[in-house]
Each structure stands twice: as C-alpha cells, then as structure tokens.
Design brief:
alpha+beta; 3-stranded mixed beta sheet; 28% helix
C-alpha cells in the first residue's frame, strides 16, 4: 500500500513538532521517498541515533515487506 508524502510528514511531525521537514517522492510510486528532517532534538545525537528516532516516529510503516513505505532515504541534522 502506497503512502502520501503528507502522511509521512504527519507521522514525523507527531514526534518532532517543530522540525523542518522536506519529503520528496523519488519515483512517483508512493513507495520511494527522501526525507530531510532538521530538529533541535537531534543536538548531541549521532546520525544513527537521529535516524532511529525518525524511523521510530514512522510507527512501523517501514516494517518488512508488508510495510506501507518501501524505501526512505533519510537525512537528519540539528539546526546550525
């Protein structure tokens, strides 16, 4: 089942309400997206910790072959 970019943003925003979030549909199929998430909560976290936090915010939508979201190229950082 495909997801809309807004659905992905809404899930991330529940956990990171003040984040700057940019979602890009990479293939036009609703299954392959890129996301950039910039949030002060990432300060002091390494990149793996930041990305795990965002994946957790997706609430299982990427879990295995039955997940709603097949691929997400993720960029995370704290604001400069």
């Amino acid at each position: 089942m495909a997801m809309q970019a807004q659905e992905i943003e809404d899930l991330i925003r529940e956990t990171f309400p003040d984040a700057q979030i940019t979602i890009t549909d990479l293939a036009g199929d609703g299954n392959h997206y890129a996301a950039e998430v910039i949030d002060a909560a990432f300060a002091g976290m390494n990149r793996v910790q930041q990305q795990r936090a965002v994946y957790a915010a997706l609430k299982g939508k990427m879990d295995g072959p039955n997940g709603d979201l097949h691929a997400l190229a993720l960029t995370t950082k704290a604001p400069a």
